[in-house]
Amino acid sequence: MTDRNKNLRSPFSNRTSNNKTEKTSNIGENDTNIPKSENIDFSIEVKNSFNKDKVNNHKSNIHDVNDEDCKRIASFTDKGEKIKDRLYTSSDIEDDDLIDNLGSNDNIGMKQVKNSSARKRIYRVFYIRLFYALLLGIFGVLMQCYFIILSDSNYTMGDAPLKDRIHEIFNELPPYLNTRTINGCILFLLIFTLIRFGLFFPFLLSVTMFTRLTLMLSCFYCVRSIFIYVTTLPCPISTCQPLRNKSLFENLHAAYLIITSQVYECTDLVISGHTAFTTILKYFWFFYDKNVYIKVVIFFYCLCIYAVITISRFHYTVDVLMGYVFGASFFLVYHWILDIAAKRYAIHRSFYAKNSGYLGSFTDRCKLHNLFIWLIGNLEALDHRLNVAVSYDKEWSSFCPCKPVNSKSLIIRKKSVNNEEYYDFSEHFYHSYAGNGTISLSTIKYILHKIKCNRGIRNKN
Asked: Spans of biased composition, class Polar residues (predicted)?
């Protein structure tokens, strides 16, 4: 200690004639003479011990249950135990890309992305999943086209069409009710949907939603192919010329003509594909957008499409009804399985059921159902999405629409009426993979940022 520090006077002391300090204020009965430096060290030790006691209190509040799920859930909660070295093994974010981030509210388990390499790996993961979905979509479309050709090969031109009540009401058709009108209306709805959820949604959620749409349609086309082939219905238009099964290259050319609507398929009837496609797009608006007025407009617009499909004799009425039921069922079942997969991973850190067989619930007993949960969870990279959802990065608005971004935990603790603790899923948990229904400009900003970066690189070169 220097002479200057020796001459400093403590606020709790006075100087005597012998240049010695005496205590002049009594703080307690057992007070002792404490210099300023020792007082600072003592206060730091007290603060550290208080913080340790605070963390220990959080630990002691957790029920002492021998259940690994409680430990896994604690890593996703705001006030759980602090897990320093426990990172998600299935994620592409490595140890050197993450740092612990304990805020003023002692949010436990929050991580922060330290560099952009982790983001690039996450983007690459979602792009690869989108590529897999596109491959499945191409397979589903080609499979449907091939089975349509096989079904048309079993059809004889001139067969009497089936009796249909709606067709009997509208005997004479207006000239504008044709295949081009139907395809144009559905194409307009598709473009409008892609613009809304592609440009005005967080970027990674937009990629995921396009992946979901492709997976649902590919599964639907595969199932519909079987229905088309097993039963050949006569065409509502008796003058239709059916396609014939020929060589591989000729069938591929016929598939191209079917996809581009250059030919009319006579037996492409069972479960209207146009109706199911329109229904899936409509449900995207119903479940992913909170604007009520747009939902009403989309609802009546889709009703008009259904009516035009039926009245134009493009399908039988029963085909349109089955198309609506199948389209809605595929959308709802897919998202039901998606919710189960997300909740399983948030609790068990795995897509597999904890209690397989007859030890678990009805959904856990079915192996095929568990297989679909595992497939959807991996095809959507849901494990990576939930792992990133617990990271704290205010600048990554392309991932989550929450404000501030990723600031909440996935699982929160609540108390029942009997003062018993239980776990519930937070709003951020659902927003991380389903959005919050609001309009976000983060994707447009991301695209403009990429354009500026590319222009800057070109100018330097």
From this structure: 8-34
